[in-house]
């Protein structure tokens, strides 16, 4: 018999998790924070673009960040949004239309044909919209820009409509782009677009920038308004460090009647600043600004090139030292029930950028003390973190040696900020009437439905009475009178237009 010849098959799984990984999966779920909502805005299509093999900007850092966040199960604690790309019209709310058009049509193949002068080496930038070695034209450039800009606009929209209390977009934070040119690896200034979105509802927005480079693009965009207060902590050396702007005495327009006067704070730093000095400066400066300016919303740019060991950086900050700024803003906004938009930015050692942004995600959801410092064993791309060790918190301090920020330097900054705050006599009052975008969309949809019903009604009337009949004529006349067209425009309208509407074109 067959059963005597063939031994019964004892099924055992050919793939099993180790007990340690099973425990991580079972116990690693992070609960949603109680009392407020956090949303994560990320379109995975943004990860597929490439600036070039030798370019320091690596979009790969976004993939590693996502891997860590999901490896720690933090996505379970957030509302997840795969954001749509921004439209050209939305980008043109800040950027010049000719520049937006250039970004949308320029490719590596047609660039030289469009601008023959770019056939010669241009250096870091050129007179053609700032493109050059820093801001190359690569395949899919406009799509890349529209993805990260769309995510920031979407995040700001969720805050405005109170669908989120804290919104994260690690793909954004590109703060150097100007109104009509690219700069410093940045083509579209998603931060400005997001703040414009917030200003439709919030009278005062505080913008904070902790990138190692000065946030010059955002500062210049809101230079002459008191509705946005810009604070930037950055390395400053006018001659050798990009972008060479942001000295301590740059506090806004000089004219006493300009509303933007004294609504900018620049904190210029030297090489090697440590966690303790950075935290002291951040707490002191931002504490003074929030007390005097009383922002109704905060936007925090978390450029991770201010970490130690960054390819383009020069500070000695560790992951937790950088994250202290996010903790401060999260605590403030949670306590006073104010929306917080958290964005990415610079950062050119991808594995450490991912570590920082994953840690800062855990801060916003209240799980910073709950996640294991050892990287999850089941996460993708885990081997890419091996160089500093399989930990979320490698030692990044001390790599620049001496801290060149003396106590006298720090005290000078603090005195300057306190002196400047004397001129902020109460938060500016702004009278605003805001209609959320969703209401406008509903209104448009209702109008379309009304139009369709009207056309259907008129068709039935014409079938019964004829197109030139009295009932159809009176119906059309009432519609024109309702819209204010009949009395003023009838004299210039042809009979055929009166019956069917004006002929376009």
Structural features:
505 residues; alpha/beta; eight-stranded parallel sheet; 17 helices
Q: Would you mind describing this structure in some detail?
A:
This protein starts with a helix and ends in a 5-residue tail after the last helix. About 40% of the residues are buried. Mean pLDDT is about 85; it is low at about 10-15 and about 485-505. It has an eight-stranded parallel beta sheet with strand order 2-1-3-8-7-4-5-6, with helices on both faces. β7, α11 (about 320-335) and β8 form a beta-alpha-beta unit. The protein is α/β, with parallel strands linked by helices and about 500 residues long. The protein is built from 17 helices and eight strands. The chain is globular. Helices cover about 40% and strands about 10% of the residues. α10 packs parallel to α11, α10 packs parallel to α13 and α11 (about 320-335) runs parallel beside α12 (about 350-365).
């Amino acid at each position: 018999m067959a059963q005597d010849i063939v031994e019964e098959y004892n099924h055992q799984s050919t793939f099993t998790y180790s007990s340690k990984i099973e425990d991580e999966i079972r116990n690693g779920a992070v609960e949603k924070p109680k009392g407020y909502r956090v949303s994560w805005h990320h379109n995975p299509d943004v990860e597929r673009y490439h600036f070039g093999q030798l370019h320091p900007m690596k979009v790969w850092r976004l993939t590693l960040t996502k891997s860590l966040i999901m490896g720690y199960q933090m996505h379970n604690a957030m509302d997840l949004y795969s954001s749509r790309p921004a439209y050209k019209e939305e980008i043109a709310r800040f950027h010049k239309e000719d520049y937006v058009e250039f970004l949308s049509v320029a490719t590596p193949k047609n660039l030289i044909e469009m601008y023959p002068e770019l056939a010669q080496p241009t250096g870091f930038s050129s007179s053609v919209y700032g493109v050059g070695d820093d801001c190359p034209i690569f395949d899919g450039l406009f799509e890349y820009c529209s993805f990260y800009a769309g995510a920031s606009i979407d995040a700001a929209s969720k805050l405005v409509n109170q669908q989120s209390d804290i919104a994260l977009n690690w793909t954004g934070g590109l703060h150097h782009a100007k109104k009509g040119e690219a700069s410093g690896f940045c083509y579209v200034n998603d931060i400005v677009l997001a703040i414009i979105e917030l200003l439709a509802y919030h009278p005062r927005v505080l913008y904070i920038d902790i990138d190692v480079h000065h946030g010059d693009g955002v500062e210049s965009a809101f230079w002459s308004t008191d509705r946005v207060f810009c604070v930037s902590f950055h390395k400053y050396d006018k001659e050798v460090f990009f972008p060479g702007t942001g000295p301590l005495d740059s506090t806004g327009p000089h004219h006493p009647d300009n509303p933007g006067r004294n609504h900018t704070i620049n904190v210029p730093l030297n090489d090697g600043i440590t966690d303790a000095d950075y935290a002291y400066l951040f707490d002191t400066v931002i504490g003074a600004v929030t007390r005097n300016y009383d922002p109704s919303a905060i936007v925090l740019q978390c450029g991770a090139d201010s970490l130690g060991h960054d390819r383009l950086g020069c500070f000695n900050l560790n992951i937790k030292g950088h994250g202290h700024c996010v903790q401060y803003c999260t605590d403030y906004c949670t306590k006073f029930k104010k929306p917080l938009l958290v964005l990415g930015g610079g950062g050119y050692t991808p594995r450490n950028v991912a570590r920082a942004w994953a840690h800062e995600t855990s801060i916003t959801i209240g799980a910073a003390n709950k996640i294991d410092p050892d990287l999850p064993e089941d996460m993708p791309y885990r081997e890419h973190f091996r160089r500093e060790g399989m930990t979320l918190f490698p030692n990044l301090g001390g790599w620049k040696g001496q801290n060149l920020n003396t106590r006298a330097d720090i005290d000078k900054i603090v005195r300057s900020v306190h002196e400047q705050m004397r001129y902020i006599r109460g938060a500016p009052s702004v009278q605003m009437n805001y209609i959320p975008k969703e209401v406008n969309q509903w209104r448009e949809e209702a109008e379309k439905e009304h139009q369709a019903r009207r056309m259907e009604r008129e068709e039935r009337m014409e079938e019964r009475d004829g197109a030139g009949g009295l009932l159809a004529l009176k119906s059309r006349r009432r519609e024109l009178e309702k819209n204010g067209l009949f009395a003023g425009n009838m004299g210039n309208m042809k009979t055929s237009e009166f019956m069917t509407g004006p002929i376009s074109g």
